[in-house]
Amino acid sequence: MTPEARLASAIDLLNAIAAAPRRPADATANAFFRERRFIGGGDRRAIAQLAWNVLRNWRKLHWHFPDRAAEGFSTADVTPRLLCAAMLHFEGMALDDVARMFSGERYAPARLKAPEKLALSHLAGKKLAMPQQSNAVRLEYPDWLAPALEAQFGPDLVPEMAAMGQAPTLDLRANLLKGTREEALRELARAGLTAKPTTLSPWGLRLEGRQPVTASQPFRDGLVEIQDEGSQLVAAAAAPKPGQRVADFCAGAAGKTLAMAMLMENRGQIVACDVSEPRLEGAAKRLKRAGVHNATRHLLTAGDKWAKRREGTFDVVLVDAPCSGTGTWRRNPDARLRLRQQDLDELVPKQAAILQRAAKLVRPGGRLVYATCSLLDAENGQQVAAFLQSHPDFALAAEGETSSLLPEGLRGKGAFSLTPYRDGTDGFFAATMVRKAAPTSTEAPLAGPAEGSQALRAPDQPGEGAPASAA
Ligand SMILES: C[S@@+](CC[C@H](N)C(=O)[O-])C[C@H]1O[C@@H](n2cnc3c(N)ncnc32)[C@H](O)[C@@H]1O
């Protein structure tokens, strides 16, 4: 593709993203490229990069295009065309050269209109980030979240949000069911991929730059799984042992189920629960590729007796709760634009209800881990404090009760948070709680696999399951 055609496609992609404002941009981008299979890998990366740079710098770019009614320019004229043109300029292209890209010729974007030319002319001599911009604009966070983020990070707000604005690293987890971390490193190198061990997760590997992992042999063989180092540490906090009974209550597409099955050395039983059938379906292919044999899936439905019958029977219960995803803004810059106060107002009681339901599954003496990929105390510390207040039979794990798989700095307290600036991971929170050992005679006996649960050895047929996710 010519540079002009790539530009036109980036504009089309941003228009598609704008047309589905509640849908995650990466889902729209996947559909966009699926419908345009003729676009090759290099072009695809260049198109996505320009579109993502626009999303990452959304507020700053808009700041440069205020209403200029007297000159016939209104903010309604700020379209993906203008944002892409501005982005190219701020990336170093002279304004005349940017204008030339809009040639109107075949595959190139249509010529710039008078209001667009006028708006672009005001960019001359300016930088993308300007001292007059507020912190929220310069660092790309929503104004309504400023008080919560300021309270959370204090003097670190600026470096934390700046780190959140960077492109993320791509982390893998060596799957010890298939080989050691050293073997994974060797096989990656043999496949032409450069990685190095992570410092916090004992199984993590960090890839330099963007490398085609999913097409590589070690990925296809299940020797490595895509998983942010922070997500690996949540599984480390849960620390299930071989032979135990484990419930991954919000398992989604099983990112943490996979890591926990690895820690269990495929022994014992792990039940991956979720309310979303498509997500649980997506888990099947990943579990098969990873060589996991000790997992079953269970779809949670309203009025379902499954959980009731298994109260007090699990050694470890992980609640990887649905959350604002504010810790994943590096990966999903569009999420900053989508998140509303209303979403948070709905999420907090939902998380509390899920945590209460899941807690009932924990046996006396067992472990309950509550985790999110959120930066916000309302979803994290406050949620755990409220739970402990209303559940005196649970306590935050004391030193010595937390997982020895965690790095020393995270082991001392029952709860930890991770951030891109401090830890080089996505933002994560995990709290380990222990149910006090006070067995009662009414406890249900250990139950076998649930009715309606599906054995995950099933997908022998090609094409079953969903692609790997980074969760
Ligand atoms: C953060 S995601 C889980 C990611 C997953 N653990 C992983 O590592 O790949 C949260 C999940 O909670 C699920 N969920 C939402 N409401 C739920 C509920 N009431 N009970 C259980 N799971 C729920 C969502 O469908 C979603 O898959």
From TrEMBL:
Gene3D superfamilies reported in the protein's UniProt record: Sun protein, domain 3, Vaccinia Virus protein VP39
Domain SAM-dependent MTase RsmB/NOP-type: 160-436
Position of the signal peptide: none
Domain of life: Bacteria
Claim: Protease is one of the keywords in the record: no
Binding site for S-adenosyl-L-methionine: 274, 320
Keyword annotations: Methyltransferase, RNA-binding, S-adenosyl-L-methionine, Transferase
Tagged with keyword Isomerase: no
Region (Disordered): 439-471
Catalytic site: 373 (nucleophile)
GO BP, one annotated term: RNA methylation
InterPro entries, A to Z: MeTrfase_RsmB-F_NOP2_cat, MeTrfase_RsmB-F_NOP2_dom, RCMT, RsmB-like_ferredoxin, SAM-dependent_MTases_sf
Gene Ontology molecular function, alphabetical: RNA binding; RNA methyltransferase activity
PANTHER family in UniProt: NOP2 YEAST -RELATED NOL1/NOP2/FMU SUN DOMAIN-CONTAINING, RIBOSOMAL RNA SMALL SUBUNIT METHYLTRANSFERASE B-RELATED
Similarity field: Belongs to the class I-like SAM-binding methyltransferase superfamily. RsmB/NOP family.
Protein name stated in the entry: RsmB/NOP family class I SAM-dependent RNA methyltransferase
Organism placement in taxonomy: Bacteria, Pseudomonadati, Pseudomonadota, Alphaproteobacteria, Acetobacterales
